[in-house]
Amino acid sequence: MALQESGEMYLETILILSKEKNVVRAIDIAEYMGFSKPSVSRALNKLREEKYIITDSDGYIAFTESGRKAAERVYKMHVTLTKILVGIGVDEKTASEDACRMEHVLSDESFEAILKHAKKYIDN
Fold first, then answer.
1. 81 with 98: CB under 8 angstroms?
2. Three-state SS for 33?
3. Where in the chain is the domain with CATH 1.10.60?
4. Distance of CA 37 to CAs 17, 27, 44, 52, 76, Å?
5. How far from each other are the two terminal CA atoms of the chain, in whole angstroms?
6. 112, 49 contact by CB (below 8 A)
7. Any idea of the CA torsion for 39, 7, 64, 53, to the nearest 10 degrees?
8. What is the pTM (predicted TM-score) of this model?
9. Domain with CATH 1.10.10.10 in the chain
10. Please, are residues 78 and 100 in contact by the beta-carbon 8 Å criterion?
């Protein structure tokens, strides 16, 4: 099943938070994204139903294999596109905001082509 943009945003947020903390909970996501707890809860239920995440009895969120793969893909696109845009002269805030929009519509094929031609702007 194709992941919606909002689902990708949640997965990316979970990944970012998991790099900062040992455990991630719905409240952490709500605070980070500035969303209400009920909105986050609905989104997490959908991600759970689609088998992208699991939660334990304490409410801690973990990725399934497909969830981690999707989160890492979106995160890599975001970081890489931001670096490319900064490398060609866009200020970092604008570059990050634009990369956030681009990461959800860009195909893997186009992303790989961009990577191939933008190596001088990134240090992956």
1. yes
2. helix
3. 74-121
4. 16, 7, 10, 19, 27
5. 29
6. no
7. 10
8. 0.85
9. 5-69
10. yes
Identify the CATH class of 5-69: mainly alpha
Which backbone phi and psi does 55 adopt, to 5 degrees?
Answer: -130, 145
Which secondary structure element, helix H or strand E, spans residue 62, and what is its range? strand 61-63
Q: Per residue in 23-80, pLDDT tens?
A: 999 999 999 999 999 999 999 999 999 999 999 999 999 999 999 999 999 999 999 9
User: For residue 47, how far is the Cα from the chain centroid?
Assistant: 13
CATH 2.60.120 fits 74-121, yes or no: no
Q: 27-36, long-range: CB within 8 Å, 24+ apart, which pairs?
A: 29/61, 33/9
